[in-house]
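look at this stuff:

>
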Amino acid sequence: MRIDRQVSLVLKAAIPGRRGPTAGRLPVLMYHGICGEVERDRHPYFAVTTTPAVFETHLQLLQQHRYKVVSLDQGLQLVHAGVKGRFVAITFDDGYEDFLHNAFPLLRKYGVSATVFVPTAFVGSRGGLVGSRSHLDWKQIVELSGQGVDFGSHSHTHREMDRLTEAQIREELVTSRAMLEEHLGQPVRRFCCPFAFPDHDRRKVGILRKLLAQTGYTIGVTTRIGLCGNRSDPLVLPRVPVNEFDDPSLFCAKLAGAYDWLHQVQLLYKKTFKALRRNRNDKD
């Protein structure tokens, strides 16, 4: 039994206000690879691939339930303006080449677009972050940008931000943004934090937020689970993880915010793990 799915479906059905988003709430969907690989050897929660067939099902559900797909910038403006309606933003992490071959044709078919976050050190690599997976090259990125796809930084070398010094984080932010702007010929103001977001550590979050603001970013997204609201910090926004194992019921529950409860479970786990590690270090 998949507990996260069962709890979310119960919440969507039982809690008032969970039936659909209204003013002030924006789901930002987080995808990674769109390919034929199905990760059967790991828990569905941790899967980071989605087959084209399931991705198209998700797009169909958005259309059927009358969601309007908007950019991150537009979505935040609508949220803060209190505009009522069903709005959603779509994002992809890691800049895999399968976005061009599998995701983009479907996005174009349904008349919508997305934001792709690129780790610039891996642009054009054939076997970078994950095994033999290929990444978009600069020519492909420029062509996609010309066809309405937004691009943002996923850092330069895709390292865990909470393991780096302030100087190293700054270098990651500055280098990746400069490379993207050089090739795209336009400002790049969006950032996606690699790996699990350290929201259990306020000091580290504060450092990242400060550096993002200092280096010219205006929007930052994370792996923190949740819908964006009018009180969400635009530099550390939550998102909704989506993958191959999101059937229609679970996908719609996530859109409605019924998956947000898992963030508190994650936060408790991180804080507990941090405390245990600190106690162990004190004893050594």
